[in-house]
């Protein structure tokens, strides 16, 4: 099961931070990163923790803890999602913020990296309570976010509505003359609140595109190729949607509630409609059978897409994986020890900072449109996204071949070298 027991949560969160540091150290050693720049990139710029009260529907007041970690902004404003989940804490936010720095750098965007969220289980609160929690969190963050400083976006258990609440609250704190100039304080907004067409599918589409590019690179036709997806939220659904439209076959889905499988193929849109009427769960879907969660990664398939939480593929289950390609739709789904096992088995991994970067690229497009007062068509957004993703993928493949390293190491090398170049050219104040 994706959802971890309380006793497991702490280890998972610490593991994510350990993973990102080991990945960074590996790439930094390869490029012989300047020692002083290494010291800068190893730490976060700011770690913000806020405690704030919110009145519940029953009249009682509950205290919440929110986080925003700003890792690095040498390339531009901090950028990264806000998640609502019981596992959110300072270590998880630090790890995710670092990954965002590498992700935006790899994509060639004028952004740095940040991440954050609130430590809570959103299923335990009403929509009205979640709105008040979100608005109060935004107010507590205050001037620590801003359209040219730090731009949040949706993440686990947050969505366009969450961003609309943040936008409205933030704008309400500004003078009337300034409000329209702050539309780009968040991305991933609903269309009517200044959002961009295509932003809803950008991350999942990016996952699909990297799989498509990888297949082209290996002269593989995706038609009838079997794939499995862990997580059937926004990323998992859209990745599956585009893959099926390209001829691939979805055979299994796992979410926080359980796992379903159908070797003959699962209808993506029918499953989505079912989950929407079943409190988000895939369990009970009539056109598939239930499978033990522990068996998910051992299923016979060509492509595995972990699109849920971090540290799902570990040394304990890596040896069971039969897929020849893992496309990381989630952030940090594969730990370092598991990756060693997978690479030794000859399994290719499209790393998270490349695979799921469609989301932040789509956010960049939305930010640009808000900033410039433009409105792009869906076709224009998707075309620009594909071009940007192909550039990133090609750079990673070429670096991988040139340096004789795996794709993740290559992606980290590109990202860190861009940051190093910025520091070398600008110098370090004072």
Task: Describe this structure in a few short sentences.
The chain is of the alpha/beta class and 430 residues long. The chain has 14 helices and twelve strands.
Walkthrough of the structure:
The chain contains 14 helices and 12 strands. With 430 residues, it is of the alpha/beta class. It has 2 domains: 45-192, Rossmann fold (3-Layer(aba) Sandwich); 202-355, NAD(P)-binding Rossmann-like Domain (Rossmann fold, 3-Layer(aba) Sandwich). The strands form 2 sheets. The chain has a 7-stranded mixed β-sheet, with helices on both faces. 49% of the residues are buried. Residues 3-14 have low confidence and may be disordered.
Sum up the structure in keywords.
single chain, 430 residues, alpha/beta, Rossmann fold, 2 domains, 7-stranded mixed sheet, 12 strands, globular, disordered N terminus
What's the arrangement of secondary structure elements?
Elements: H1 6-31, H2 35-41, E1 46-55, E2 61-72, E3 78-84, H3 90-106, E4 113-118, H4 127-141, E5 150-154, H5 160-172, H6 176-179, H7 202-217, E6 226-230, H8 234-245, E7 249-255, E8 258-261, H9 268-276, E9 289-291, E10 303-306, E11 325-327, H10 336-344, E12 348-350, H11 352-355, H12 358-372, H13 378-403, H14 407-426
Parallel strand pairs: 3-4, 3-5, 6-7, 6-10, 10-11, 11-12
Antiparallel strand pairs: 1-2, 2-4, 7-8, 8-9
Helix pairs in contact: 1-3, 1-14, 3-14, 4-5, 7-8, 7-12, 7-13, 12-13, 13-14
- Kindly state the percentage of residues in helix: 40-55%
Radius of gyration: 21 Å
Mean pLDDT: 95
CATH domain fold name of the largest domain: Rossmann fold
CATH class of the largest domain: Alpha Beta
The H-and-E topology, N to C, reads as HHEEEHEHEHHHEHEEHEEEHEHHHH
| Poorly predicted regions | 3-14
* Quaternary structure state of the chains depicted: single chain
Second CATH tier, the architecture of the largest domain:
3-Layer(aba) Sandwich
Sheet of most strands: 7 strands, mixed
Number of domains: 2
Spatial order of the strands forming the largest sheet:
9-8-7-6-10-11-12
